[in-house]
Amino acid sequence: MAKLNLLLLAVLVACALGLVSSQHKARKLFTELEREHERARELDAEYGRLQLEASTWGLHSRVERIAVGTLGLHAPDPRRVRLVARDAPR
User: Fold this and answer.
1) How far is CA 62 from CA 34, 53, 72, in A?
2) Runs of H (alpha helix) within 1-90
3) Whether this model's pTM surpasses 0.85
4) Is 75 strand, coil or helix?
5) Fewer beta carbons under 10 A from the terminal one: N or C of the chain?
6) Which pLDDT band, with edges at 50, 70 and 90, does 42 fall under?
């Protein structure tokens, strides 16, 4: 009977250690998950800011202002522009 009690005590201690170990691991994983959720929220906010910045940089008026002011470009003379049809016979 004493051997059975010792065996049951050993099984109980092993189960208790397993439970404590699994709870600790679960808490660590939950903390890591929360950290990753926070990082995802930060990345979403940064993506929104970058989309806004990209739309600002690509505004037609801004591109035209830089082309004319900085690069010295201008629209071609309409008399020198020729339109070529895509399905033109050869």
Assistant:
1) 41, 13, 14
2) 2-57, 60-69
3) no
4) coil
5) C
6) very high
